[in-house]
Structures are given as C-alpha cells and as structure tokens.
Design goal:
The complex is a heterodimer of chains A (138) and B (347). Chain A is mainly alpha-helical and 138 residues long. Chain A has helices at 4-7, 22-26, 49-62, 70-83, 87-99, 104-136. Chain B contains 15 helices and eight strands. Chain B starts with 13 loop residues before the first helix and ends in a 12-residue tail after the last helix. The mean pLDDT of chain B is 97. Chain B is globular and about 55 Å long.
C-alpha cells in the first residue's frame, strides 16, 4: 500500500523542470508552508537522487502491511505528525486515516497519545528538578 | 433542506455539472479524460458484458435530503414512475438473462405502486433488491414493509455512511442514526441479517472529500461496533465512492475540494476496477422509462446512445447488450482504488 505522503510523489513525466527558473523564483511563496508543496515532496530527489530514492524506498516499505497493518501505521503516523508538528504530515495522515476507516474519536485519541507523551516528557523532567532540589537543599 | 432543483440552483442542470467536472479551471481541464484512460487499456468504447441487473429508479421523492445525494432527492421531488411504465418494465424483465431487479430512488418505498410491483417481480422469480434509507421504515405508513419484504425474500440494502452517530447525522440529518438503529433492530427481529434468505446489507460512503476505506477491513469494524453498541447484525458492507455530481459536487465546490478530489479519482484509476464497472452488467431505468447505463448517468441525463434503444417502450435486450456505454469524467468515481458499484468495491 502506498502511503499517503508518497501518493504525492512526483511523476517525472509531469515534473516541471523549470520550477526553479528565474520567473518562478519571483513567484516564491511569502509563507514558509504551502499545502501544494506536499505534492512536490518527491522532488527532493532532484538535488540528491540516490539518497532521495533510498528514502522513498524505505518510506514505502515502512508503511506497507507487515507485522503492523498499513491501517495501524497510518494512525501512528497521524500521532507522530502532531508530535513533530509537521503540517504536511498532519494533512496527509488525516486524509489517510479517514480513508483507512478511522473515526474522528479514534483520530483525536491518537493526537492525545502524542500530547500525553509530549507533556509527559516535560513533566518527567520534574523528577530531575526534584533531585536537584534535594541535592541543593539542607 | 430543499433539493437543488427546488432552489433553482445552477447545479441542478446536468450540463452545468458536466461542464464543471470537465472545465472548471485550467488544472481540471488538464486532467486525463476517462475515454483516454479506457483506451490505454483497450476498453474504449466500453461495452456491456450482458445485462443481468435491471435497476429501476422508481422516483426521486424521498423523506430525506442528504447532503451528498447524487439524485438530488427529497420531499419536494415529484417525479414518480407510473404503473404503466412499471408494466413496461415487467414486460422487459421476462427474460432469463436478467436475474436481479434493483429498486432505487429517492425512497423506492414511496412509489404508490411499490407493493404491487414487488409482488409481480416476485412472481417472475427474480431476485429483488430494495435500496432503503431505513428511516422511511420508521414511519407509520411504511412500518409494515419490513415484514412484507421478508415474506417475499427481498434483499434490503440500506444506507449507513458510518458506524458512528456523528458522521451519519452530519451527512443524512440529525436523528438519522438513532432511527436507523431502531429499524435495523426491527429487521433483525424478523430475520434480516440472520436468515440466509433475508439478506441485509449496509452501504458506506465517505462523509467528505476522500475515498472509501478497504471494504473488508471496514466491514469488520462495522460488525464489531454495531454488535457491541446495539446488538445489530448484518450480512455485507458495501463501500461506495461519491461521484462528483449533484449535491456532492456542490459540496466539493463550496469546500474548495473539487480540484484535489478530481485529481485523486484520476490518479487512483485502477484498470482492474474499470473491467468490473457495474454499467457493464446493469441497465438503469428512469422514472419516466428512459434508459441509462447507470443511475449516475441518469442524473446527468446521459441516456443510452449510439443507436441503442433509449426508452423502455423500445426495449430490445440484444441491442442493449451490444450498446456502447456513455462515459464522462464522473466515471472516474467508479474506477478509483478498489472501484465502486452499487454492490460495493469491484476488485
């Protein structure tokens, strides 16, 4: 099963070779994130083909049905997308999760798992703070 | 909510719909044509494999006005098939090649000749499918129909766009989910979903601009959730893709999803699904007797063409078996991913 992000892998036949031409540079986005850039993800191979190809081969293998199903992996990806706060990944894996049959409640619970881990990661350092307080205190 | 036609909405015009899915913007104009994709796999012109399913749209009237409805059905639609036209259907049905009569609408139960017609088709020994919205069976006028259909071995295929109340009610209206659960329990009580002769199938369709999940996997989820939450059983789940026409097209336009949805349908073109599209073994009959290749073509008023009969009064099975099927860009909805038909995924 091709992952949602890789669905946007570029098609070499349709790839716009002139996208970095001077005229296109004049039209560069004024914001850092553009949803349409997700479709250009595959273009990263253009500057370093060997590593790009290896990454996408690996990426597709990761998301294939295996010990975990592609469906389970899509929900994990949705949670991780929120943990790493990647807007492209959130768009892609929200759609992918819907197309894998997850409900809104399941998807939000996955986000809460990411949130709990992120929050817990901060809070657990409170123990380090407490240890230091103990060490410094009389 | 009123139908698009009652609102005098531009999208009630099939020509406007076809123009939008072909020419809405430069990107959509640049997308591959359905004919071209068929041609690449030697399937153009698309020909029938033989008519086995006789799908009759007995009228566009419905007690509901769902947001995605490709028929633009609703209480304000008055198009209803007459008894005379139904009699012409019976004449045409008198052939062993046609094994199944599929009754759709609107709410097919609302046709005043529904019971008489089901009886007559039953006498012909044909398998009958009724496409029910479920909620119509929760009204006093129609509450005896479950038993009526059970007595005649009618298969019931009903809409339930998701196993959760939230998504079902979003698409089909507040209260739909609870009514649907109530009616499914009644159907179970009289044997539907339990007795092997009383098939009860559910239809999933995406509540939004995305493709359906894997049918088998989703069926497991539906079975688990409906049993655990309501003690309901059913036979098969059919996943159906929304085609970009009528009210669903309106949603795509209003939510700025049209371009991406069309692109998704086209990039997900599956040659295997194209081989199995339902128009190859189905004929669709409109409320006024006009013939179409499918219910979607019916709503776009793309009647059977290329010299084959286009009205039930001119029925000629041999010529219809050899017709050329009418296609356009909406057909990508039936060939995306696992494919889609009135019987669910086709691969």
């Amino acid at each position: 099963m091709i992952s949602q992000l890789f669905l946007y892998h570029f098609d070499p036949l349709n790839f716009n070779r002139n996208r970095f031409s001077q005229s296109n540079l004049y039209h560069m986005e004024k914001t850092y994130y553009n949803p349409k850039d997700l479709k250009k993800f595959g273009n990263v191979s253009d500057f370093q083909k060997e590593l790009g190809d290896k990454f996408f081969d690996y990426y597709n293998t990761v998301f294939a049905d295996s010990a975990l199903s592609a469906k389970e992996k899509s929900l994990i990806a949705l949670a991780v997308a929120h943990a790493v706060q990647c807007p492209y990944c959130i768009d892609a894996y929200t759609e992918e999760s819907l197309e894998k049959g997850f409900s809104e409640e399941q998807m939000m619970e996955a986000v809460h798992v990411a949130t709990a881990i992120r929050g817990g990661a901060s809070l657990v350092h409170g123990v380090q703070m407490m240890n230091k307080v103990d060490k410094l205190s009389m | 909510m009123k139908s698009l036609i009652a609102q005098s909405h531009s999208l009630s015009d099939p020509d406007v719909q076809l123009d939008i899915i072909n020419n809405h913007n430069e990107k959509i104009k640049s997308l591959a044509r359905f004919e071209q994709k068929l041609d690449e796999i030697d399937l153009f012109p698309l020909k029938p494999t033989g008519i086995e399913i006789f799908q009759i749209n007995v009228g566009y009237m419905c007690n509901m006005t769902c947001k995605h409805c490709h028929v633009d059905a609703g209480p304000d639609r008055k198009e209803i098939m007459t008894r005379e036209t139904l009699e012409l259907c019976l004449d045409a049905l008198n052939h062993e090649q046609i094994t199944t009569v599929d009754l759709t609408g609107g709410a097919p139960e609302m046709n005043p000749h529904f019971r008489w017609f089901v009886d007559e088709v039953s006498k012909l020994g044909k398998h009958i499918i009724v496409r029910s919205n479920l909620t119509i069976l929760d009204t006093r006028k129609f509450e005896d129909l479950p038993q009526f259909m059970a007595d005649r071995g009618v298969e019931i295929t009903c809409s339930l766009p998701f196993y959760s109340k939230r998504r079902t009610d979003t698409q089909r209206g507040e209260g739909t989910y609870d009514k649907s659960m109530k009616v499914l329990k009644i159907l179970n009580e009289i044997g539907y979903g339990k007795d092997e002769n009383l098939q009860l199938n559910l239809v999933y369709n995406p509540v939004g601009a995305f493709l359906p999940p894997d049918q088998e996997s989703l069926q497991e989820d539906y079975k688990e959730r409906l049993w655990n939450d309501h003690g309901i059983v059913f036979n098969e789940l059919y996943t159906i893709t929304n085609l970009p026409i009528s009210r669903y097209l309106n949603f795509l336009l209003m939510s700025d999803n049209l371009e991406e949805y069309m692109e998704k349908l086209i990039t997900s073109f599956n040659p295997g699904a194209a081989q199995g599209v339902m128009c190859r073994n189905t004929i669709s009959i409109g409320w006024d007797g006009t013939l179409y290749d499918c219910d979607f073509n019916q709503m776009l008023k793309m009647q059977t063409n290329h010299g084959s009969p286009d009205h039930i009064k001119d029925w000629d099975l041999e010529r219809l078996n050899n017709r050329e099927i009418m296609v356009n860009q909406h057909c990508f909805g039936c060939t995306a991913g696992a494919g889609s038909s009135c019987g669910g995924a086709v691969t």
